[in-house]
Amino acid sequence: MTSVHFRIAPIAIDNGMKLTRTLAAGLLALAGLVTAAPARLTKRSFDYSTEKLRGVNIGGWLVLEPWITPSLFEQFPDYGGDSPTVDEYTFCKTLGSDEAYKQLQQHWESWITYEDFKALADAGVNTVRIPIGYWAFELWNDDPYVQGQLAYFDNALAWAEELGLNVMIDLHGAPGSQNGFDNSGQRGNINWLEEDTLTLTVKVIDELASKYANHPAVTSIELLNEPLGASLNMTVIKQFYEAGYGTVRQYSSEVDVVIHDAYVGLTEWDGFMNTPDYDAVVLDTHIYQVFNNWQLELSLEDHVRAACNQSDSIGLSNQKLWTIVGEFSGAMTDCARWLNGFGIGARYDGTYYKGSSWIDSCDGESNVNSASQFSADKRANIRQFVEAQLDAYETGAGWIFWTAKTEAAPEWNFIDLVNNGVMPQPLTERWYGQQCS
Ligand SMILES: *[C@@H]1O[C@H](CO)[C@@H](O)[C@H](O)[C@H]1NC(C)=O
Ligand SMILES: *[C@@H]1O[C@H](CO)[C@@H](O)[C@H](O)[C@H]1NC(C)=O
Questions:
Q1: I need a labelling partner for 9 at 20 to 30 A (CA). Which of 258, 369, 378, 422 fits?
Q2: What is its EC number (predicted)?
Q3: Pocket, ligand 1, Cβ cutoff 6 A
């Protein structure tokens, strides 16, 4: 038996989609089919109606981010120059394909290993979200990107399968860049949808889904990370999501299709893909409290309150589409070196741009490699903030921490936070009680 598959006529009521899936899960359990099937052959799925998603992102691996692995970018001291090297695109362009391939292969080989996946599984994580760029599949125009990531990606899927981790595949970069962030591959302009990149993006989803949608460890595919709704045409983003959904469904009726909220607010998605025509759609929102001054000025208590404040809207949205917080961290400052981009300073200590206002010093936060170097007070504060976020986000369908590890930036380093008693272990342990109730 290679797959177990029930089609049940969708029930046309509010939440019909969820009811259908709950029924299907119940029938499977009754029939004893789930436990009877050999593990290797069972296509896993994640049942949001009975389980919270507790996940970790595998950031800075198959898509470079200078602040996650600054050591790869220290070779480019001239970041203030005319054509600075600030992202994976310029990394490949500056080094040329042979040298870029050599360095990237070394990075793919070493930055994330089986031991890291094992550490995540041991910490009680049930899902890893793995960012990958379109350029792993297709090049566009005169792209300097190098390929070869997929062999490492395949290894990661095998580790996940062995360790019982679910995988959310996350298309993190679209041709031309969907947000202008370095983590899209290319920092600066937002050229996605400016030229005819939509067809190519859907083609990449087609390749990705045909290759991976039926992999036993893959439970979901996110069509695109963080398209910047304010700078793009929302109508076209929605058309893209519909095209992407249809493309994934050609290969699998089961794998969850994840859509990012495009930063326009959860209520913008009320009713979208929430009809019997769509099944297994998950809405992803990202919550950080360090990318504008008013949040950086909050006290610990207000950071906690701001996290708890999200509970209602997430819980409400979760009654329409399963809603996850697919990225968040323990950071309450933007002091991590290059967090705002290679060569760019922090808002917190006034080095973001010339004339930035100053909130406090970043001393003791930048250039710290591990939470073990923080004071006990600071570790306790981060833990309190993290606990509040986990509670708030579990009013929805769950959460995915950004990110598994960093070279520095401990507030963002899940494995290091676990090792230093900052991340609750088990993940449901609370030192600060139910802060959101
Ligand atoms: C957004 O795209 C739609 C569909 O192509 C188009 O009809 C509409 O005019 C566009 N809106 C703007 C503001 O460009
Ligand atoms: C929490 O939400 C309330 C009501 O919307 C708002 O007045 C308050 O400023 C929020 N607090 C924080 C810290 O975000």
A1: 258
A2: 3.2.1.58
A3: 233, 235-236
Burial code (b: 16+ CB inside 10 Å, e: under 16) for 390-420 equals bbbbbbbbbbbbbbbbbebbbbbbbbbbbbb
Mutate to test the pocket of ligand 2, among 267, 292, 302, 309 (most ligand atoms within 8 A of CB): 309
In the chain, the domains with their CATH numbers are: 11-419 (3.20.20.80)
- Whole-structure pTM value: 0.90
- Structure tokens of 19? 């009811």
Catalytic site includes residue 327: yes
pLDDT-based confidence at residue 260 (cuts at 50, 70, 90): very high
Question: Could you give the CA distance from residue 307 to residue 435 in angstroms, rounded to a whole number?
Answer: 10
- Residue closest to 336 by CA, chosen among 350, 327, 353, 348: 348
The CA 207 to ligand 1 mean position distance, Å, reads: 28
Tell me if 306 CB under 6 Å of ligand 2.
yes
In terms of average pLDDT, the best of 6-20, 32-46, 243-257 is: 243-257
Q: Tens digits of per-residue pLDDT, 170-201?
A: 999 999 999 999 999 999 999 999 878 999 99
